[in-house]
# Entry
Amino acid sequence: MTLSTPVIWVIFPLVAAAICILLSGRPQLSLIIASAIAFGLAVLAAFLPHELSLGPLTIVLEESLRFLGRRITLVYAMLPLIALLYAATGLWLLSSNLPGVPKTFRPISLVVTAALTAALGVEPFLYAALLIETMVLVSVPMLSSSTIENRRAVLRFLSLMTLAMPFILIAGWLLTGVDTLPPDSPLIAQSAIVLGLGFAIWLAVFPFHSWVPMISQHSHPTVFSFLFFILPTGVLVFGLNFFNRYGFLRTSETLFNIIRLIGVLMIAYGGVSTAVQDHLKRAFGFSVLVETGFSLLAISSASSGGIIWMLMMLPPRALGYWLWGYTLARLESRYDMVLNLKAIQGQSLRFPFLSSGLILAQFSIAGMPLLASFPIKIALLSQVLAENMVSGLWSFFGGLGLFIFTIRLLLSFHQPIDIEIKQPWFLQDKFPHFLPIILTVVILIISGLFPGKIFPSIIDILAAFPQLQFLP
Amino acid sequence: MQTISMLALVTIVIAVLIVIIFKDWRVIAVALGAQYLGAFALVALSWPVNLAIVKLITGWMASSVIAFTCLRQNRERSQPEKAASLFFRGLTGLLVIVLIFILAPSMQERIFPGVDLVIIQGGLMMMGMTLMQLGLNSEPYPVIISLFTFLSGFEVIHAALELSTLLTGLFVVVNLGLSLAGVYLMVSAEETSESIQEEEL
# Structure
């Protein structure tokens, strides 16, 4: 029997999503099925042999699926990334029974991950732009649109993502045969500009970033934390295709300098904006810009192994975002109000585990020593400092933005309010609520103490980009 | 053939101007239908008619979905707009048209040398008008209509560059997906305004 990898990681999740829609009246069952399928697909991607023997039945796995005259090819080298994507989806699905998470989240998250997986394997690879657009369109119903502000945010997100897609397709067409052109050909600069614009819009680079804090402020934390992990991850990995395929992009020092400048700008702008926020969910949105900045900074140091750092940042980021989203969602359901620094004053006495989880999630994303992102960010910042002192210093100070916001949050959590002076405090955290927090924090600490031990195979996906392994 | 392509370009120019100037969904629906007809004629210059017609059918389907939503919502005719407002929008539309006619020949020369000028003009006209429309509106209906126009303009130009069945299929998915997303946003906008009205009562 022959089975292809796209059938397993693209078609099967779509079928699972359809089942989840049918089971929308039975939330517990659909939660179990969706999570089990996502984790099952992640395990399968992590440990898949080329040939499966189930008793007398032998299943041979192919890497390609022909579809409307083209192919979707999921090579074995890409499976670690697919494992990460499905594991992250499974993690978010586990928290999809939190109050306020839209019913549509379960099927849509599976469809989004399936579309992203297809985008990573479609040939010609430029068609991925349309699959990413499909992913954006599918994600609209899970983003809240119950107020005018929410709708405005969703429309801005939708508009910008739709405007980005043609830039990528046109750039792809312009790049055809560009390798044979002389280096001073104007076509090279034109195609690089068009391509850059497309990616800048997709990655919410300043000034195309306005939808990010708007979405984070108005949507459910579980939903936007998932979207902010999955969308930039897909776009960044898709972007590696261009470096792998086009030699002039790989060898252009100017291009890497521009990427570094943009990365530093995003870290500095996002960091300052995060530091001065009062709204907890908006701060998440701005720190997403900082994280994208760090990814761009890593790509700009590609010749010193930056792409490995970019990939290694993904698992800690997934865990950090999930914990951040989870704790915010729990807090939001408790208070049923605007989550700002004033509203949560003194609440660490009521919810010590929840508040600690939130603080640690933010510290982990910020790159606090002993937590998951620290080893990678310190290595990256050291490298950037060695290569360019000014960029390194701006990145360092920009990265402090989330630290400052977290310290403000910490102070606010511990600030006593009148009611607590009159009444003794009592623990309101429940064990099933804080168990996931404890487990995630333990994993974050282990990742920080033993860097590269969580999803170490993520860097193996570089085998799918042979040219990037030998960057000058 | 040249007459048809010129006729298509004129249709597109008039249609995009109507879409930017007027706000009545009935007028816009008709203009959008005409615009897709013009786009189909331009795509048919590069593709076989049996494949180009997919763009026409998809466009009409997508715009019908939005039009039927407007009909279901029983949108009342908005109050007559001031002449100054209509004049302003018409003027901005005309400016975009003039700009596209100036830019298109140099774009043909530098970026799309093998593509017919009428195709570039038609495609850019729709894309340019969309950017103007997006800048002027923030409500679901005009934004979604603008995105339809933008995609249609891009498809006209891209059809002259590449012919692919999968790509055509993916564009169909995107157009229909956009119409469904538009319906979702329009319906939720209506529900919000209804709940606000109930609260006020």
Residues 2-200 of chain B form one domain. The helical segments of chain B are 2-21, 25-43, 49-72, 83-110, 117-136, 140-161, 165-200. Chain B has seven helices and no strands. Chain B has one domain: 2-200.
